[in-house]
Amino acid sequence: MVELLKNNHSIKTPCYIIDEAKIIKNLEALSGVEKRTGCKILLAQKAFSCYHLYPLIGQYISGTACSGLYEARLGHECMGKENHIFSAAYREDEIDEILSLCDHVIFNSFSQLEKYRQKVVGAGKKIGLRINPEFSTQKGHEIYDPCSPKSRLGITAKNFQTDNLQDVSGIHFHTLCEQNSDALKMTLDAVEERFSEVLKSMEWINFGGGHHITRADYDIPTLERCITHMQEKYGLEVYLEPGEAIALNAGYLVTRVLDITENDIPIAILDTSAACHMPDVLEMPYRPPLYGSGYPEEKEFTYRLGSQTCLAGDVIGEYSFDKPLQTDDLLIFEDMAIYTTVKNNTFNGMPLPSIMLLESSGDLKTLRSFNYDDFKSRL
Question: How far is Cα 299 from Cα 192, in angstroms, rounded to an integer?
Fold first, then answer.
């Protein structure tokens, strides 16, 4: 299928293409976890917010997880199932609308709990608190580590007010990032060590996101043991809110070679941008997979791939190919459904890529296209 896309020069680039069949495969795996354990899985919209697919996603999992008012509206309007929200702090001018949209409201501090407790109780919604287990399972990515020193996310055991849990029914933690279930197991050990007495008085626990459940090497049996352990030991309803797992390896970014230049290495200038269209390449940083390519010098012809923008560091990486690149060649970056459309921008006036759906039938359908007005309206 990817080879067919690569040879389809009628595709207007750059564009994101979401692979419906791969989304369904991921959803079937997640639905299996729900059915075998009785847990509930929510789509973390911060990773993937393609609402055109929400009716499909809602056939397999239990709802949506939100980080603010706009995501809360999107989940409520487009999927209409359970809708949970966490924010580091809530705005007074938004809280009433949030309460009209969400079932669970999770607070990051006791001061926020005190400020909004009565409103949430009056609206008949469930209250949760986010904890910080102070246990890091990732290295080298502090920007994505909620347990890093001086983190603003979650309440530490030292600052947890065990005598101030009136109307609180659940605990939330989110510490993982693209990790396997061994990291979850170690984190749960830390949670129990610091908060076991609190767990005994709760009704539910949310394991947050960062679980790469649909990755080929993911250890699902260990995940399920973690879920059933919390259910059986504490009588808790268990939620998970993965984002990446829903759309992992289920999307492409198709780009075109505009020019080939030279500066110690051949440089291909593309009509896409790391800074604008796949910002995690620079933030994480990471090297996105590129169909048909190899690492530098692995294949005969090595190129540095960069963007049209004026940002000197707007470089995607160095890749090698079996044959020389030519102007107008199509390149297909993989795993481009997650953290792309939700984070892209129009720096330098770069056009936003169209969003397309590769349907299970093999047909390509345009979900959304963008133009100058989309750039101008943001300014």
Answer: 50
How many residues are listed for the chain in this entry?
379
Domain 38-246 indexed as CATH 3.20.20.10: yes
SS3 320: strand
Chain centre distance of CA 122: 32
pTM: 0.95
Residue 308: DSSP 8-state:
S
Percent of the chain with pLDDT over 90: 94
User: For residue 220, what pLDDT is reported?
Assistant: 98
d(CA 185, CA 359): 37
Residues 370 and 341: beta-carbon distance below 8 Å? no
Return the closest-CA partner of residue 132 out of 152, 104, 114: 152
Distance CA 110, CA 107 (A): 7
pLDDT tens for 320-348 read 999 999 999 999 999 999 999 999 999 99
β-pair type (40-44, 63-66): parallel
Handedness of CA 11, 16, 19, 22 (dihedral sign): positive
**What confidence tier does 3 reach under pLDDT thresholds 50, 70, 90?**
confident
DSSP secondary structure string, 248-289? Answer: TT-EEEEEEEEEEEESSSEEEEESS-HHHH-THHHHTT----
Angle at 190 between CA 189 and CA 195, to 5 degrees: 105
Q: Which sequence spans correspond to the domains of the chain? A: 2-18+251-336+344-377, 38-246
pLDDT band at 1 (very low <50, low <70, confident <90, very high): low
- The CA distance from 32 to 95, in Å, is 35
CATH code for the part of the protein at 2-18+251-336+344-377? 2.40.37.10
For residues 130 and 107, the answer to whether their CB atoms sit within 8 Å is yes
Residue 350 pLDDT > 80: yes
Residue with tokens 């808790």: 236
Q: Which among 199, 208, 201, 209 is positioned nearest to 229, based on CA atoms?
A: 199
Residue 247 in contact with residue 25, Cβ under 8 Å?
no
The two structure tokens encoding residue 215: 């990755």
| Residue ranges in 38-178 assigned as alpha helix (H) | 54-57, 69-78, 95-101, 110-122
